[in-house]
Specification:
single chain; about 150 residues; alpha+beta; two-stranded antiparallel sheet; two-stranded antiparallel ribbon
Length: about 150
Amino acid sequence: MNCMTCFSCFVKLFTSSKLKLLFVLQDYLTVVKKPMDFGTIKKNIEDHVYTDAEEALADCQQVFDNCFLYNKPQDDIYFMAKQLEAVYQEKLKAFPDHEPEVRVTKTTKPAVAPKSAPVTSSSASTPITPTTKKSKEDVSSTSVQVT
């Protein structure tokens, strides 16, 4: 078995759903008090749950900590997790020490009715002009400034 096969198995285990994991490891929650997996981390990133990189990195470290807490040092999964953690820590060194601050500001603009050409009814030859009500609410737009 080559290294990529081991890595692939490891990633599949830690990105599987929590229900599958808990079914196989029924005592997991008695040992691990804060379960976390890479699938959840990925979803949290996609859903913009994290407010900064530190939160995501803490969850990544939690995956490793849980693995080392639950498994024995002589287990294959423990060994593979140690190797992956070493690669993870090495990759983190390439990131900047300081996360740039992102400021989100909201601006308001008055609502503008869309311009459209008159529509002709198929049953009549008179043009039908769409009527639009102007909204009293302002339309918000968001701008992001990175410092």
